[in-house]
Design goal:
Protein name: beta-glucosidase
Number of domains: 1
Number of helices: 0
EC number: 3.2.1.21
Helix content: under 10%
Pfam family, one: Fn3-like
Number of strands: 11
Strand order of the largest sheet: 2-10-9-4-5
Oligomer: single chain
Radius of gyration: 17 Å
CATH topology: Immunoglobulin-like
Mean pLDDT: 86
Structural class: mainly beta
Strand content: over 45%
CATH superfamily: Immunoglobulins
Largest sheet: 5 strands, mixed
Keywords: Hydrolase
Family: Belongs to the glycosyl hydrolase 3 family.
CATH class: Mainly Beta
Distance between the termini: 36 Å
Length: 161
């Protein structure tokens, strides 16, 4: 084998073809709505962790469970990276007509890229939160919110943080 690229060979590097059944896809007897996506802080040092909160509401007539998914996208990187990376998920039971506020921690190491060793880089990132993948072709009955964050400072090896 001479071609070691992961493009089109693993779920992290889809290429142009999306999977038939993406992560978290499934049917539900109710509907959900997302709102109030908050990144804290929206500008963070290169070695800092990020706190994410979002409100999930069951807008349907029945109790239900939703798999809340957080994805991270690098807007620019010095090395090839996935289109987006799953950084957190949680299955949440929400009674009909109720809402819940969820909080997640995105660790600095989840933003690391491989460049002859794990390295953290400054730049702009987009974080997605919802019941499906960003830009998913097979639609689930929920939406995906997005927010941008900036990472400041100099690039450094992960073990220096």
């Amino acid at each position: 084998m001479e071609n070691y690229t992961m493009e089109g060979r693993t779920y992290r590097y889809y290429g142009q073809e999306a999977p038939l059944y993406p992560f978290g896809y499934g049917l539900s007897y109710t509907t959900f709505s997302y709102r109030d996506l908050v990144l804290s802080p929206p500008v963070l040092p290169v070695c800092a962790n990020l706190t994410v909160s979002v409100v999930l509401e069951n807008t349907g007539p029945r109790d239900g469970e939703e798999v809340v998914q957080l994805y991270l996208r690098w807007e620019q990187s010095s090395v090839p990276v996935p289109r987006w990376q799953l950084v957190a998920f949680r299955r949440v039971a929400v009674p009909a007509g109720q809402e819940t506020k969820l909080s997640f921690q995105v660790l600095a190491e989840q933003r690391a890229v491989w460049a002859q060793g794990w390295r953290l880089e400054p730049g702009t990132f987009t974080l997605f939160a919802g019941g499906q993948q960003p830009a998913q072709r097979t639609r689930a009955p929920s939406e995906v919110l997005s927010a941008r964050l900036s990472v400041t400072g100099a690039a450094r090896p992960l073990q220096e943080c």
